[in-house]
Amino acid sequence: MRKQIALCIGNDNYQYACLSKLDCATNDCREISNKLKNLNFDVLCYENLDRIAMHTAIDEFEARLPDYDVALFYYAGHGFECNGHNLLMPVDTNGIDAGYREWMALDLDYLISALEGKNYENSLKTKIIILDACRQDGAGRGGPTHGFAPVFAPEGTIIAFSTSPGQKAVEFEGHGAYTAALLQSIDLPRIPIENMFKHVREVLSAQTSGRQISWEHTSLMGNYCFNEDSIDAFAFYSSEALADKNYYFRTDNPLYEIIETLKSHDWYQQNPAITKLSSVPFESVSANDLFILGRNIFQAADGGAWSAQSYIKDFISNSLNIDIKKHILSGIAFEMYFDRNGLLRQTFKDANYIEILRLLENEDFQMCKNFIVAKLSEESNRIIYIPGSENKIELHLNCTEIEVHDNGDILYSVVAIYNQGANIIFSADGLSLIDQEWYANAVPFASLRVELAKKLLAPPDMVIITSNIEDKGNHYFSMPFNYSFRRGMLIDT
């Protein structure tokens, strides 16, 4: 299970007339803290901190980060932009001079440096900063002139602001409008963090009649949900079922002969074996057995057995009990991604993958999707579409010309593919960058898009592809043989 920590600060009780007292920043801080505790965060919650106490809280927070995978900072109170710096104001601020405020305040860059491990090296995968500040003076938390300045979000970081640049923000009904929307949204199940903040923005805009629009800077890698709402990957299936090369079936198990036949790689045996499933007494079969059955059905389908392919296509109309079907579908989907050792495949199995993704989206099979998403979320180095995700995968292709044919056709080789600024195309085993000497047959750009989507096990409309070569009717593109998409790989030289 991922380890998560949060530091929450709420400042209401400003001591001097230069900054108005606030009504509900501390209340927001408490409620966000309680919500984060329910989402399995270890929470540090502070109220009405002066300058020294705010910096001390950040320093102590940084010292704890090496023990965690996810870190979150939440702030409610006065905040300003001053000389290009984003400042969070302690309660003992006294004076409006820009230089004084900059000296008194907690600079956002100080917090970002702490999350990046300035003094204590950490291995944080996800860093979240939420700032509910910059609110209209006299009616909220902020200043009369400036909102927050643009800010750089280091890799793996998302910075969420309660307002868009130049806007003020309001408080009402015991909460800041932004935090009220955040409290409604943060624990929605199975929503990626970017989509969660989009939901906050929609709620906030509706509640303020468009006067306040939140926004985010992000450079997150991978997928993160506050509320995964997922089952433990081992809740139903044994380690032997997940790594099924040595899974044992007793000969008196009603699935024994069917499983053995599906393993034959012989269509003439596999097709009749699928038909025999209609007579199996499934009430005597365990969840692990059903999971293994699903794996072997998909293995046969991927090998070309038409009856196994039809079984998957007609899965919804299958008359089996829904609880039985859930375990079979979990096995089918797991086999797409994972090998007989329970490890992520170097090359995914893609037969009928669109049909399987659609099945995982069916509300009757939410358990199956949660199981697969939980397993895939453990694989941080691979670029892969997560079932149900609304985040599109953006790929930029760097191509070079190979040759020009007599008919005017131009052939290009794809020599690099970039995602979030990094070349992600590696050999299938991930040990080296692609070998640029061997390429598959060239295809039009539209066909290449479908191929790349299949490589990611993604619906084609969830993949955005751009290229340094303009797509024309006589342009054809060739990919290397046997490649995989990976991020953050270290290559020995």
Describe this structure in words.
With 493 residues, this protein is an alpha/beta fold. The chain has three domains: 215 residues, Rossmann fold (3-Layer(aba) Sandwich); 138 residues; 93 residues, no CATH class. The protein contains 15 helices and 18 strands. It has a six-stranded mixed beta sheet with strand order 2-1-3-7-8-11, sandwiched between helices. Strands 12, 13, 14, 16 and 17 form a five-stranded mixed beta sheet that branches. A three-stranded antiparallel beta sheet has the order 4-5-6. Helix 1 links the parallel strand 1 and strand 2. The chain is globular. The two termini are 34 Å apart.
CATH architectural grouping of the largest domain: 3-Layer(aba) Sandwich
Termini Cα gap = 34 Å
Sketch the major β-sheet. 6 strands, mixed
Low-confidence stretches: 135-141, 230-234
Integer average pLDDT: 87
CATH top level assignment of the largest domain: Alpha Beta
Which structural class do the helices and strands define? alpha/beta
Number of helices: 15
Number of strands: 18
Strand content: 15-25%
Rg result? 27 Å
Helix content: 25-40%
Number of domains: 3
> What would the CATH topology of the largest domain be?
Rossmann fold
Shape: globular
Biggest β-sheet: strands ordered side by side in the sheet: 2-1-3-7-8-11
